[in-house]
Design goal:
The complex is a heterodimer of chains A (293) and B (284). Chain A has 293 residues and is mostly helical. Chain A has 12 helices and no strands. Chain A has helices at residues 5-9, 17-26, 33-45, 60-95, 100-114, 117-131, 150-187, 191-198, 203-225, 229-240, 246-255, 259-287. Chain B is elongated, with a radius of gyration of 22 Å. The chains are: A mainly alpha (293), B mainly alpha (284).
């Protein structure tokens, strides 16, 4: 069987029947599927996700917890940046539909959305790390480095995270821009915009307080829906930059047939996405006071 | 329905959008180039025709890769696989998605409930990890990728088609057809479909882009078929075989550029069609 975890544990070496039996018993692989599932399910509530095949003898929980903060750092900060950039770009484009700014930024967005995210990452890595040497080549922090201060440590982490964050941000902010732009165009036709103009309010006040504020909901909805895509993005970005987050862990887990680890990664992502969705719901309530849960 | 006068009118509006026309030109150029690949490509992309990582020169316009293959030839032949995957996957997805959306929206009731719950499941699954898992277990290859992509890819379109059907089916002409004893299949095929075909076409164009991007992504992760070098497989080898250390930008830039170019071309066309058809639906 090509997907056998035993093969992966042994690193491709042929096992003696005794060693094989010992491994099967050690990992509980002789139990029935239902039995294994039940053990896993009960373990989840104790925070016990089993032992990783590949990182043996480390527990899956420990391996996942090591990777989770890194993913949270690059994906989380990038998502926030995407929304902020998408917001300003969308408001600017939607304010004067059909204008030169609008059509140029639309063309730009549609092109960016068609560029593979990992390729953007490769370009950044090639230009800024390999050619210019401004950023490190891989990893999340310099191995075995000593820092003179906390400041130096933080700086090192930021230098490692910068390119992954920028690559992910550039490849996805356009989604929010396009949605917000289209809603803005509809909102601007509303009567209250005319009223605001008649009252003699300043352009910026109408633009941001009246039009943009009332156009935000579809963009936030889109944010919630597209959170699932975070898993894919994190796999691509972390593979390109060899960044030790959940995505890379998941990818390697699949390649190594490390089932407990793969399950652990999915659980990690699921927790991140559920928490993020909860925050989105809170933001919703703040933006539209009519909504109550 | 599509009459000649309609097409002329359509083209008159369409050609006003510069990006849409540009997109059409790019797609045409790419399609012709990959069809004529055997005549255009200077070398066999699978043969060793130069040294390792040779820089671009007159002999090799885009240089050579890690095993001395000509990059330009790879690019032309790779386009065949990437574009073919895009078109085939998009056709399958568009057909299945439209049929599911059409039947679900038109019949309503229990059928609608069941089909939409399945759609919900397909939509909420994180696609990429699922595809990685399935590709890893079914074994890498272009057939696996196509199968896996189509299994999870039809949800969005089914949803969109269904919502269009729901609004069209309330029209008086559907009622009239029913009163005259028109059967379900007849009404769906000759009254509802012609009215939503525009949205389907606009979506089909976008689907080609998504399929090309997904194929590139899966191949980049090493789940593609190394014996059929698509643009994604080229990038996979660029990443793994030291193109960065060798500063071989000619291996890294062109495949992604090709994907971005053809992808944005489809995006431009799709966006234009979407606007045009949405306008038409709104007018009625």
């Amino acid at each position: 069987m090509p997907g056998s975890p035993l093969y992966a544990i042994a690193g491709g070496i042929k096992l003696t029947p005794e060693a094989r039996q010992a491994l099967i018993e050690r990992f509980g692989l002789d139990a029935s599927i239902q039995e294994q599932f039940w053990r896993y399910f009960a373990g989840v509530f104790r925070g016990d996700l089993g032992v990783s095949f590949y990182h043996y003898p480390r527990a899956v929980t420990a391996v996942v917890m090591d990777a989770l903060p890194w993913t949270l750092l690059i994906i989380g900060s990038s998502l926030i940046l995407q929304v902020i950039i998408g917001y300003f770009a969308g408001v600017t484009a939607g304010w004067k539909p059909g204008s030169k700014t609008d059509s140029i930024s639309q063309t730009f967005s549609l092109t960016l959305l068609a560029a593979p995210i990992f390729w953007l990452g490769m370009i950044f890595l090639f230009v800024f790390s390999f050619q210019l040497g401004w950023f490190p080549l891989a990893g999340a922090q310099t191995a075995a480095a000593t820092y003179s201060s906390t400041f130096g440590y933080v700086g090192d982490i930021i230098r490692h995270a910068a390119l992954p964050i920028v690559a992910f941000t550039i490849s996805r902010y356009a989604m929010y821009q396009l949605v917000l732009r289209n809603t803005m165009v509809t909102t601007l036709k509303e009567q209250y915009i005319l009223t605001a103009e008649a009252k003699g309010l300043s352009e910026n006040r109408i633009k941001y307080r009246h039009a943009a504020r009332n156009s935000l909901l579809p963009m936030i909805t889109m944010f919630g829906v597209s959170l699932v895509m975070v898993v894919g993005a994190s796999v691509y970005i972390e593979t390109v930059f060899s960044y030790p987050g959940l995505g890379l862990l998941l990818y390697n887990g699949v390649l190594n047939r490390d089932y407990p680890l793969v399950q652990g990664c999915f659980l990690g992502f699921a927790v991140l996405i559920v928490v993020a969705n909860f925050i989105v719901d809170m933001v919703y309530m703040y933006l539209d006071p009519r909504i109550r849960y | 329905m599509l009459k000649k006068s309609n097409l002329i009118e359509f083209w008159r509006v369409y050609k006003q959008r510069k990006t849409a026309v540009f997109g059409l030109v790019i797609v045409a150029v790419f399609v012709v180039a990959v069809i004529l690949a055997p005549y255009l490509a200077p070398y066999d992309p699978y043969l060793r025709v130069g040294a390792r990582f040779e820089a671009p020169s007159l002999e090799h316009l885009l240089g050579t890769n890690d095993i001395g293959n000509d990059v330009l030839s790879e690019l032309l032949y790779g386009g065949r696989i990437s574009l073919m995957f895009g078109f085939v996957a998009a056709s399958i997805i568009v057909m299945s998605g439209s049929v599911i959306g059409l039947v679900s929206g038109f019949l309503g009731g229990v059928v609608d409930e069941i089909l939409m719950r399945i759609t919900d499941i397909v939509l909420t699954l994180p696609r990429l990890p699922l595809m990685i898992l399935m590709a890893a277990f079914l074994g890498p290859g272009i057939g696996t990728m196509l199968f896996v992509y189509c299994v999870v890819g039809w949800g969005t379109l089914a949803r969109q088609v269904r919502s269009q059907v729901l609004s069209v089916k309330e029209s008086t002409f559907v009622e009239a057809s029913k009163a005259m004893g028109g059967g379900n299949i007849h009404i769906m095929a000759s009254h509802i479909l012609p009215n939503i075909i525009g949205i389907i076409i606009a979506n089909a164009v976008m689907e080609v882009m998504f399929a090309i991007l997904t194929e590139a992504g899966l191949s980049f992760l090493g789940l593609g078929d190394p014996t059929h070098k698509s643009w994604g497989v080229m990038l996979y080898f660029a990443q793994r075989q030291g193109a960065f250390i060798q500063q071989a930008w000619w291996v890294i830039f062109p495949p992604g550029m090709a994907i971005a170019l053809i992808g944005s071309a489809f995006n431009f066309i799709g966006a234009a069609l979407n606007d045009l058809f949405a306008l038409k639906l709104g007018k009625r």
